[in-house]
Amino acid sequence: MTLQIYPAIPKPSYAYVMEHQLKTVVTDFESGTEQRNRRWRFPKRTFMLIYKVMELTATERDALYEFYQNRFGSYELFWYFDFQNRKWIDQYVGRGDGIEQTFDLPGYGTGAFEEGGFLTEAGDRLITEAGDVIVGDSLVTRPTIYVDGVEIEDYSFHEGTGEGGADQIIFGLYTPALGSLITADFTGYLRIQGRFRDDKLTEELIVSDPNKRFENLSVSIYEVRYT
Q1: DSSP letters along 65-118, please?
Q2: For the ranges 20-29, 69-78, 212-221, which has the lowest average pLDDT?
Q3: What is the DSSP string of the chain?
Q4: Residues with Cβ within 8 Å of residue 66, at least 6 apart in sequence
């Protein structure tokens, strides 16, 4: 089944919350020592978005409600692209099978520097929304790809050709071996496979006086592993 894409418009009205969750099992011993076992190689993320309902057009408001309703709450998975163009390190791409050479990257806008984004060198210098440039030393125009932790440069980059509009890489003469782990560092918009965390949407009505009314819509998106 082809997954739908969470609406890019409207954007959240407030600075939203993103949680990164790892899983470590800690065992305490009588001696006071402890043993830690890492269960997850990569984090799961939760995005908590808040919209000011009164600032949305009727079309934008309906798009959010309809997308939620058409997914049957938390039942159906979808693609979610983060709203921040930023640097992402050690992101899961896939596993080699000894045959496949084409892989979707977990994001888009990962192949070139974009206005409003970040430099990936010299301390992640920023271009502001107003267009003010804080100049760094260099720009990285391609993601860095690793197979089992070793950087691989033998690949071509394809913008937006993957599922849901994600960027893609195609390895050249190199083919990732069966079971090998493929990861990437990139600057762009993260893509996750997610679902609504709950079978409910939360609306908050704030009335400070009879002439003022603020209505917020809260949405939580929970990352689901697809391999």
Answers
A1: HHHHHHTTTTTS-EEEEEEEEEEEEEEEEEE--SS--EEE-SEES-SS--TT-B
A2: 212-221
A3: -PPEE---SSPPSS--EEEEE--EEEEE-TTS-EEEEE--SS-EEEEEEEEEGGGS-HHHHHHHHHHHHHTTTTTS-EEEEEEEEEEEEEEEEEE--SS--EEE-SEES-SS--TT-B-SSTTT-BB-TT--B---S----S-EEEETTEEE--EEEETT-SGGG--EEEESS--PPTT-EEEEEEEEEEEEEEEESSS--EEEEEEEETTEEEEEEEEEEEE----
A4: none
Structure tokens given for 169: 């890489």
Give exposure, 89-113, as e/b (b: 16+ Cβ within 10 Å): eebbbbebeeeebebbbbbbbbbeb
pTM: 0.77
Cα(175)–Cα(99) distance, rounded to whole angstroms?
Answer: 7
Q: Which domain holds residue 95?
A: 4-223
The per-residue pLDDT for 151 is: 94
CB-count burial class (<10 Å; 0-12, 13-18, 19+) for 211: exposed
Domains of the chain: total: 1
The tokens describing 191, both together, are 């893509």
